[in-house]
Amino acid sequence: MDEENRYPDSIMEICQLLAKTDDSQLIFDFFECLFTRAELRDFSNRWNLVKELDAGTTQREIARKYGMSLCNITRGSKEMKKADSAFVRMLEKLKETH
């Protein structure tokens, strides 16, 4: 199996493990082990941009606030507009917890 075909299996394995735990500190610690500081910052910013778009913040404001390119923000916006968007479904889960 080549590398391109292996990565979805590994990601799904991680997702399945995360779905089995309700220990948010363990997940946080796992992310700190798995990702570099820069990767964690990017990961965090991508989630923040989704929340900002949901709140109605303009793309230019998000770009300024997080130092992100408009291309990345536009990509997130397009993902949110897709039918059955995973971003929208996760935002709904976030709203359920608040």
From TrEMBL:
It comes from the Bacteria. GO terms for cellular component: cytoplasm. The keyword Nuclease does not apply. It comes from Treponema peruense. Coiled coil: none annotated. It is found in: Cytoplasm. This is Transcriptional regulator. Keywords: Cytoplasm, DNA-binding, Repressor, Transcription, Transcription regulation. Gene3D superfamilies: TrpR-like (1.10.1270.10). The keyword Acyltransferase does not apply. One of its GO terms (molecular function) is DNA-binding transcription factor activity. Belongs to the TrpR family. Pfam families: Trp_repressor.
